[in-house]
Amino acid sequence: MYQVGNLVKELTEKHGRLRESLMPILQGIVERHSYLTDEAMVEVAKELDISAAEVYGTASFYTFLDTKVRGKYVIRICKTITCSMKGKGEIIETIEDMLKIKVGETTSDRMFSLLETNCIGWCHKAPAILINDLPYTELSPEKVVEIIKGYMHK
Amino acid sequence: MENNTGLNKVDLIFEKIDPKEVLTKAFEMTNEQIIQEVLESGLKGRGGAGFPTGLKWKYTASEKDPDKYIVCNADEGEPGTFKDREILDRVSYKVYGGMAIASKAIGAKNGIVYLRGEYRFLLPQLMRELELFHKMIDEIGYDFRIRYYMGSGAYICGEESALFESIQGDRGEPRNKPPYPTTSGVFYKPTSINNVETLVTVMEIIKHGAKTYNQLGTKDSRGSKVFSVSGDTPTPGIFELELGMTVQQFVNEFGDGDTKAVQVGGASGFCVPRKKFNETIIGFEGVPTGGSMKLFNSSRSMYNVLHNYLDFFAEESCGQCTPCRVGCQQLLKGVQNVKKGDVKSTYLNELVKLAETMKVASKCGLGQSVGNAFRTIVENFREEIIY
């Protein structure tokens, strides 16, 4: 759990207090903390003067607006057909071995979460993953180990 | 430039142009002239649905409410398409330019780009380029502003009315139609919503003229378009081709010599088996595509392909209407049960009927098109689904 503190206020200053400010505000919280806590969503509801249920309703619709605890770095592996054909399975096994977690889980130090996702638009350079916002493509087990090591030492 | 496979490679979308020159030309035209030019070009939407762009603009232009919007749909989520990312990455100024031309045609002062969350890494660069674009139109003396909204990982938000809901801060659930976006779109205002590539094509049409542009392609599919090629191919990537080729010509160029099927139009598109390569035209007279072209060779199980697509749809269905929500789950469960032998293989016929029902009864394009891939894969590769 994190303390959302002044972040919601900062984000409402930036994006406004209209209904259409909701997505950018939620995205801003996720960018900083990787997921939405109940406390954060209630805070957003207060700032926008809408019900917390509406905030949760919107958040729970979108895959990238996670309401479950996620690590600092969220690894999303594309599982759609081309990535599946081009070695997605091996990449998952490699990451699972390395981080000692399964798909859907988060490391105990809250550094990494490992998730599957639908087509991320890199089929010509499959297999591909996103780590937070950044895409990594044409992966091999060796390459993905190096990439994740880079994040461990960040 | 004809090559030995009968494919005509074209270089319009990524061609470097002087946007100021094209926009100045467009702004000297009346809005009727712009719409007429786009109508004459025969341009149909490049996102996949293929609605005539000029007509969309004409309808939006005819609305009385002066508060109108031009929205660029950059929520490119169809499995196997990645051309809009490439277009935004390489020539975003042409996307912005196309939006400005559209705004003049329909009478809008505000533009919105809705970019999928998966492409957020592009945003800083796109914002810098947008700033330059705003400066340029200020110099020309044209009053128009574009802003960005981001998606957050929902395929359904590529559906136009779901996209509007998402911009408005709601769940991305499609609306009932009518009213259509041209009457009631984003913020319930008259809206023209166009695909990234469509908007770039408009720049090319204004630059070269409709008469030159519509010499490319066929009667039903004018011009050229960008194809996203992936799967079992030695040359995956992005290629702009003249419309009107057959699947066979496409396979001659991009296949690995062992192509048994091409999925045209992504998970919501059609599977074309080898025996139909020759007779099937890629375009609105045959199998339409937003650009997604996936090749499968004989080492691939079409059961795995179908299963992958159904799994995709079961997850991405917004869940709002029953035919789609339950239909997607039942199709997925159904093929699993057929494969396991828990039900008779004739059960597949029932599933095809269910897919047909979804086409009629679903609220939006997602549920309506699940049956495309389902029917064409099951019909052509029945034994692979059963055994």
Topology at a glance:
The complex is a heterodimer of chains A (about 150) and B (about 375).
Chain A: H1 7-15, H2 22-33, H3 38-48, H4 52-59, E1 73-78, H5 81-85, H6 88-99, E2 112-117, E3 129-131, E4 134-136, H7 141-152
Parallel strand pairs in A: 1-2
Antiparallel strand pairs in A: 1-3, 3-4
Helix pairs in contact in A: 1-2, 2-3, 3-4, 6-7
Chain B: H1 19-28, H2 31-41, H3 53-61, E1 69-74, H4 83-106, E2 110-115, H5 123-140, E3 145-150, H6 160-167, E4 191-195, H7 196-208, H8 210-213, E5 224-231, E6 237-242, H9 247-254, E7 259-264, E8 270-273, E9 292-297, H10 302-316, H11 322-340, H12 347-361, H13 365-380, H14 382-386
Helix pairs in contact in B: 1-4, 1-7, 2-3, 2-4, 4-5, 4-7, 10-11, 10-13, 11-12, 11-13, 12-13
Short description:
The complex is a heterodimer of chains A (154) and B (387). With 154 residues, chain A is of the alpha+beta class.
Account of the 3D structure:
The complex is a heterodimer of chains A (154) and B (387). Chain A is of the alpha+beta class. Chain A has two domains: 53 residues; 80 residues, Glutaredoxin (3-Layer(aba) Sandwich), CATH 3.40.30. Chain A is 45% helix and 12% strand. In chain A, strand 3 and strand 4 form a beta hairpin. The two termini of chain A are 21 Å apart. With 387 residues, chain B is α/β, with parallel strands linked by helices. Chain B has three domains: 195 residues, Rossmann fold (3-Layer(aba) Sandwich); 74 residues, Ubiquitin-like (UB roll), CATH 3.10.20.600; 85 residues, Up-down Bundle (de novo design (two linked rop proteins)). Chain B has a five-stranded mixed beta sheet with strand order 6-5-9-7-8. Chain B has a four-stranded parallel beta sheet with strand order 3-2-1-4, with helices on both faces.
Identify the notable features of this structure and list them briefly.
heterodimer; A: 154 residues; alpha+beta; Glutaredoxin; 2 domains; four-stranded mixed sheet; elongated; B: 387 residues; alpha/beta; Rossmann fold; de novo design (two linked rop proteins); four-stranded parallel sheet; 14 helices; 14% strand
